[in-house]
Structure formats: structure tokens, C-alpha cells
Design goal:
Elements (H helix, E strand, L loop, with lengths): L1 H35 L3 E10 L5 E12 L3 E3 L5 H7 L2 H21 L7 E4 L2 H6 L2 H10 L7 E6 H6 L1 H14 L2 E7 L6 H6 L4 E4 L1 H6 L4 H16 L3 E5 L4 H9 L4 E3 L9 H9 L7
Parallel strand pairs: 2-4, 4-5, 5-6, 6-7, 7-8, 8-9
Antiparallel strand pairs: 1-2, 1-9, 2-3
Helix pairs in contact: 5-7
The chain binds ligand C2E and magnesium ion (MG) (3 copies).
Protein name: EAL domain-containing protein
GO biological process, one term: signal transduction
Organism: Azospirillum cavernae
Length: 281
């Protein structure tokens, strides 16, 4: 009986997997037509100085404007795009669109801030620094106005490739941040060697401060370490004034979170930039 039950359970899991594969394949097809039908949007979340609350940069965050279902968040489709490989053309589109928008803002006379784009592990593995550079050049942008956010996992999957791409990006002047820092398992010896500009402290640690002692220690250690390594540091997911006060006390200079601004469409983001109109020459 046990054997028969085990066999049946196997059949059950096989069916589950087959169903999942079918769902992912269907979603992959929908994502591909969404790109053709121009249903993807970027929203921009401000990164803000804790010293004067000035705008320091934007992070571009992907949304799928689905005619039937409304705005779909990236958590619902990025993992599938990563699995099927569609993330590579989709990621190229994101970088191109962020660059196009940055060019529009420059042409409107804005005093620009860097725009950061998320690069998934598979996208990083399939592209070279020159591939990224070509997209930035297509829009005649100074490389310092574009930042790429990569996770520790993306680096650790293929360290040699990541090192060479990041090194070349740094030489070109394109900024690189490590996203969700503290949740991966990159070793400190690699961190020391990585050609990056910024560490973004993961939201899960910020969530607990200032109350949770463990989170407070981790956050303060990351900030001290970034300082020693000469890296900028951004705290992600800051929602409360007490969190901002705690971070300021630790000399963390930049935050990104609901307290200082939610992700907004480009036309709303323009409002934040217009406070930074260039002085007439
Ligand atoms: P991430 O890169 O760590 O982006 C930050 C996420 O935290 C965003 O979620 C943002 O809306 C959210 N967030 C910001 N401040 C707060 C806060 O104060 N409280 C809370 N609870 N959340 C906050 P979003 O836009 O849903 O994106 C989720 C993840 O999806 C991103 O995490 C990133 O890993 C991925 N993603 C988004 N856009 C892209 C993209 O264009 N390409 C790739 N490869 N991944 C993307
Ligand atoms: Mg990010
Ligand atoms: Mg993050
Ligand atoms: Mg994340």
C-alpha cells in the first residue's frame, strides 16, 4: 500500500511540475507579446540625501501595464522571465528605456541625477560591458548618469565573468551597486576586490531598526564596512522617521523608501527634477 501511495505521490508531483511548466510557458508567451505591444513601464523611486533631503538619484522599477489586470509588479513575472531567458531582451529594454528617459530629462534642461537599473543574474551572464555601453551611447549619455544594480548572487554565479564586466564598466564610468546587500552569501574577500561604487542595504534589515538589536548591529556594521571600503551606502525600504534618524546617527547618507518617496511614473518624477533646473549658462 505504501508503495502504491508513493507511486501516486510521484504522479501527483509530476503533474504539479508539468502544470507549473505549462503556466510558465504561457506567461513567457504573454510577456513576449507584452514587450511587442509596449505594455512595460518604468516607475522611478527617488534616492534621497539624509543630510538635506535633496534628490540623489532614481531607481527604475519595472511594471507590466496589463490591459486586463492592471499594473503587475515585477515580483510576479521577473522570476519566470529569468527562468525562460526572456529577461535578457527584457533587461535590455529596461536599460534602453531608462536611458531614453534620462535623455529626455537632459533635453528638457534638468540638472540630472543618476538613474539605476536592475540587472538580473542571467542578464549579467549573457552580456558584456560593451553591450551595456552601446545602449548608453545610443542615447548620448554620460556614463556617470547610469547605474547598474546587481545582487550578490549574480556575482557569485560566475565570479570571473562578473569581475571582468564590472571592471570594464567601472573603467567606462558606469556606476555599479550591489543590491539587497546582506541577504546573499558573497564573501568579504570578494567584496573587497569587486569594482563597485555602492552597497544597498536590504530592506529586511532596515525593517527591524531601531528596535531589533540584531538588525541594528548588522546595519551599523554594513555602514562602517562600506565606509572603510570607500563605498557609498543606500538604505532600502525606509518607511519611518525613527529609521531615518537611526541611520543618520550612523552616518548613513542616502535612503530610498516610502518615507522619502514611492516609485512614480516619469511625468511625476519630473516634478522632483524640476527643483533642480540648470542655471541658465
Ligand atoms: P529591488 O531592486 O530591491 O527594488 C526595491 C523594491 O522595494 C521595489 O519593489 C520597491 O517598490 C520596494 N520598496 C521601496 N521602498 C519601500 C518601502 O519603504 N517599503 C517597502 N515595503 N517596499 C519598498 P518592486 O518595484 O516591486 O520590485 C521588486 C523587485 O523586482 C526589485 O527589488 C528587483 O529585484 C526586481 N525588479 C524590479 N524592476 C526590475 C527590472 O527592471 N529588472 C530586473 N531584473 N528586476 C527588477
Ligand atoms: Mg534594485
Ligand atoms: Mg533591493
Ligand atoms: Mg529585491
Amino acid at each position: 500500500a505504501a508503495k502504491r501511495l508513493g507511486g501516486r505521490r510521484h504522479a501527483f508531483f509530476r503533474k504539479e511540475l508539468a502544470d507549473q511548466a505549462r503556466r510558465h510557458l504561457a506567461l513567457d508567451g504573454e510577456l513576449r507579446s507584452a514587450l511587442v505591444n509596449k505594455q512595460f513601464r518604468l516607475h522611478y523611486q527617488p534616492k534621497v540625501s539624509l543630510i538635506d533631503y535633496g534628490l540623489q538619484g532614481f531607481e527604475a522599477l519595472l511594471r507590466w501595464d496589463n490591459p486586463g489586470q492592471g499594473m503587475i509588479s515585477p515580483g510576479e513575472f521577473i522570476p519566470v522571465a529569468e527562468e525562460t531567458g526572456f529577461i535578457v531582451p527584457l533587461g535590455d529594454w529596461v536599460l534602453d528605456e531608462a536611458c531614453r528617459q534620462q535623455r529626455v530629462w537632459l533635453d528638457q534642461g534638468m540638472n540630472p541625477v543618476p538613474v539605476a537599473v536592475n540587472i538580473s543574474p542571467r542578464h549579467l551572464r549573457h552580456r558584456t560591458a560593451d553591450d551595456f555601453r552601446r545602449i548608453v551611447d545610443r542615447h548620448r549619455l554620460p556614463p556617470e548618469l547610469i547605474e547598474l544594480e546587481i545582487t550578490e548572487g549574480a556575482v557569485m554565479q560566475d565570479i570571473d565573468h562578473a569581475m571582468s564586466v564590472l571592471g570594464a564598466l567601472k573603467a567606462m564610468g558606469i556606476r555599479v551597486a550591489v543590491d539587497d546587500f546582506g541577504t546573499g552569501h558573497s564573501s568579504l574577500s570578494y567584496l573587497k576586490k569587486l569594482p563597485i561604487t555602492t552597497l544597498k542595504i536590504d530592506r529586511s534589515f532596515i525593517n527591524g531598526v531601531p528596535q531589533e538589536r540584531e538588525d541594528a548591529s548588522i546595519v551599523s556594521t554594513i555602514i562602517a564596512m562600506a565606509d572603510m571600503l570607500g563605498l557609498d551606502v543606500v538604505a532600502e525600504g525606509v518607511e519611518k522617521t525613527e529609521q531615518a534618524n537611526f541611520l543618520r546617527h550612523l552616518n548613513c547618507t542616502q535612503v530610498q523608501g516610502w518615507l522619502t518617496g514611492r516609485p512614480v511614473p516619469a511625468d511625476t518624477a519630473l516634478g522632483l527634477l524640476t527643483k533642480r533646473l540648470k542655471e541658465p549658462a
